[in-house]
Amino acid sequence: MQQKNLSIMHPRPSSIVAALYTLRDLNVEVAILHGPPGCSFKHARLLEEDGIRVVTTALDENGFVFGGHDRLVDMLQKVEERFSPKRIGVVGTCVSMIIGEELHEAVMEANLDAPVIEVEVHAGYNDNTKGVLFALESALDVGIIDRQEFERQQHLLNEATNVEKKYGAASKEYLEPSRGDVKYTVAKRVIEMLKAGKKGICILNAKKETAYMFADITVALQEVAVKLGVEDNIVNFANLDTELGLPRVRQHAEHILADMHDNVKIDEIIGGLDEYPIAGQQVRQLIESKYKDFDFAVIAGVPHAIPMEALEGMELISITNGPRQVHPLKDMGHEHVLVEIDLHPKTLGVTNIVESEFGATLRQLALEE
Amino acid sequence: MNPQKRIAIYGKGGIGKSSTASNVAAACADEGYNVMIIGCDPKSDSSITLLGGKRIPTILDLLREGMEIEKEEDVVFEGYKAVKCVEVGGPEPGIGCAGRGIIVAIQKLKKISQSMKEMDLIIYDVPGDIVCGGFVAPIRKGLVNEAYVLTSGEYMPLYAANNICKGLSRINTKLSGVICNSRSVSREEEIVSKFANEIGSDLVAFIPKEQIVQDCERDGYSVLEKAGDTDIAEVYRTLARNIMASDCAVDPRALTDERLRELTR
Ligand code: SF4
């Protein structure tokens, strides 16, 4: 037995939402939230932008008291009738889980043709990766993923949780949100280094669909380097392996690589888009063996998953989308930390690279050179 | 090997579920079975008479203290003749949610307990009537496959027993029998036996009211351990044998309230 971790004060991602995102990655077409109508509203709507329908059984006060079994059976049947989905998800909420609703019984009773992934989850887990894990376990049960992929995902989840606890938004009791450094100033610094003939590594280590925007930084840096005639001074790392991950995640990598055309050459593939928590080791080996003498690194996505030893001696420019990631990154020793605000809503439902603020700033400044 | 028996004993609060459960557990252990008893009542007195009067930490006690329960040994304790004892515990009265407590504890137990698989008999001592989803969690989570109802010949316990039958059919769980824990009311055996038949089941044991049960309990022992050669010990032994041998469970048909009243008049 051991004492549980210290509790964290700032609001954090929810396991229910994490389960919904995982269902999307498993190409579920309709997800039913079994609980109150307002549960996870913002993300449920956002996910609809991404092509998955999210509906709710809308339990009210009566539902809390008398249970929502019949409503869920009803909703399952309605969903089949109206959308004829090939794959359905049912996700618990705090309410339905507290009153002891059984998703499985309702699913059996509804007796649908399409496979249903049941996720018994509520928002009360410290690690929101629990929501992902439960969804994957259930997908394994109904045969949508195989054991090997399940174990791979499980390993990645553990690593992701470790990274968040060590260096991320779960590393401190309270983290002040911050917009980070001014993009103009940092872009100027990057151009200054390029003009001085310094050598830089551009690392895209992004989480799934966020890569649609973080990849723009790779593209922008490349354009600027070409314009300044120093493209040989930049090498590109990216976790864009198209052979790894859940179906939708592989598609993202394909889309992004296609959108880069021949304009950007990725020198080193450092894993799949779900491997951001473990890509750091590969980055480290690559730098040690080939790129030791580089002067700076631009890291977009999950910069805190790259071990600092790998980056020793380099000036670090890091771009994240979490305002609460700024302070931990500064503490680690990243000189410049930038935040791409609202990245997530802008990258759902897209199949092309989306312009980033930092990318735009770099391009604009290069024009003025 | 015999298939594992996983039973739950339901009945009105205070009717004697815990003492019946622990005496049955002790009797089965005497016969050489591997037995586990899981007390879901917040009073946690299912196991106390198997542990010589000692209280064990409950799963929910540990969770409340913020402990991470990882191993079976944290919550499973061996008592009389190696019966494995677990107590679920509960929140403070008036604070929190007992039903959720059971759900959480049961899930935790399922995750960490290896030896559950090796048992011949697992007895769940479930609190009171079936009320909320939490109280039926052991069944819902696939941990129980047979239920027994404990009652006396009085109206209220029978009313509760009847209600429990409604609950059992609601969750598609079979009833293996009715047990009468006597309160020495008139025509008791006749009434309970009639009740059992009318719901489609049988009276599997009539446990007479005897002071010796109370006395052993107060000392912290089961009747089987402390007064093994008494008649009442023999009653528990027979019940235990019946439970281990039983293979006819039914879907209970609850009676109407009027019929129930008639029966006890
Ligand atoms: S408390 Fe739980 S169930 Fe209620 S809205 Fe929040 S996440 Fe949903």
Automatic annotation (TrEMBL), chain A:
InterPro entries: CfbD, Nase/OxRdtase_comp1, Ni-siroh_cyclase_CfbD. Pfam families: Oxidored_nitro. One of its GO terms (molecular function) is oxidoreductase activity. Residues 19-141 form the Nitrogenase/oxidoreductase component domain. NCBIfam families: methan_mark_13. This is Nitrogenase/oxidoreductase component 1 domain-containing protein. It comes from Methanohalophilus portucalensis.
From TrEMBL, chain B:
The keyword Ubl conjugation does not apply. Coiled coil: none annotated. Gene3D superfamilies: P-loop containing nucleotide triphosphate hydrolases. One of its GO terms (molecular function) is iron-sulfur cluster binding. Keywords: ATP-binding, Iron, Iron-sulfur, Metal-binding, Nucleotide-binding. Its cofactor is [4Fe-4S] cluster. Transmembrane segments: none annotated. Pfam families: Fer4_NifH. Belongs to the NifH/BchL/ChlL family. PANTHER family: LIGHT-INDEPENDENT PROTOCHLOROPHYLLIDE REDUCTASE IRON-SULFUR ATP-BINDING PROTEIN. This is Mo-nitrogenase iron protein subunit NifH. It comes from Methanohalophilus portucalensis FDF-1. The lineage of its organism: Archaea, Methanobacteriati, Methanobacteriota, Stenosarchaea group, Methanomicrobia. The gene is cfbC.
